[in-house]
Amino acid sequence: MPAIQIDERRHRNMAAIHSADTKPELVLRHELWRRGFRYRVNVRRLPGSPDVVLPRYRTVVFVHGCFWHGHKDCKNYTVPKTNTEFWTAKVARNQARDQDVWRKLEAKGWSVIIVWECELKNATLEDTVYRVSQEIARNGQLYREAKEERKQARIKYQKERKERKEREQTLMKEAKSLS
Ligand SMILES: [Zn+2]
């Protein structure tokens, strides 16, 4: 019956949507929200559809699974003893894709913060959130300063152009009165 098929499809879709909200990511989001940071999640129009996007700070955060993204020297990243080559190659591909995503985001003026899943365990959560908050705040500061600099440069340029025009007009008037 078609009705059942639709229900099944919807169920699968919902399962897929839920899988995007992995738990460590929720923990980080909750902590950032508590500290007053406002963000958007899974912004698809940005490269790599980052987990957390903070437009006011021009910063994105990715929460990376230690195994899939190959967290160096992490006990959660141990290459399986079977099919070792396959897993090593797979993780290497993920890492290459991650780097490509960072480059694209940075080219668009975004700062990228990586948080590893193991850093969000209870024992290290507080330190991690502190580090991430500091970094976001600093990025926001730099972003605002750069914006202000561009604004000042624009004002200066417009002022100079106006003065130049006024000088030209004065000279023209003088020229006319002389002729
Ligand atoms: Zn790790």
In short:
This protein has 179 residues and is of the alpha+beta class. It has helices at residues 2-20, 23-34, 84-107, 122-178; strands at residues 40-41, 52-54, 59-64, 111-116. It has a 4-stranded mixed beta sheet, with helices on both faces.
Main beta sheet, described? 4 strands, mixed
| Number of spatially distinct domains | 1
Q: What low-confidence regions span 5 or more consecutive residues with pLDDT below 50?
A: 1-6, 13-19
**What is the overall shape?**
elongated
User: Strand order within the widest sheet?
Assistant: 1-2-3-4
The SSE string, one letter per element, is HHEEEHEH
Listed once per kind, the bound small molecules are:
zinc ion
In terms of DSSP E residues, the strand content is: 5-15%
Might you state the CATH topology name?
Answer: Endonuclease, Chain A
* SS summary, helix count: 4
Helix content: 55-70%
Write down the Rg.
26 Å
CATH architecture: 3-Layer(aba) Sandwich
Q: Tell me the span between the first and last alpha carbons.
A: 96 Å
Q: For the residues shown, what is the average pLDDT?
A: 89
Characterize the structure shown:
The protein has four helices and four strands. The model is unreliable at 1-6 and 13-19 (pLDDT under 50). It has 179 residues and is an alpha+beta fold. A four-stranded mixed sheet has the order 1-2-3-4, sandwiched between helices. It has one domain: 3-Layer(aba) Sandwich (Endonuclease, Chain A), CATH 3.40.960. The longest helix is centred in the last third of the chain and has 57 residues, at 122-178. It is elongated, with a radius of gyration of 26 Å. The N and C termini lie far apart (96 Å). Bound molecules: zinc ion. The site of zinc ion has 6 residues, from loops.
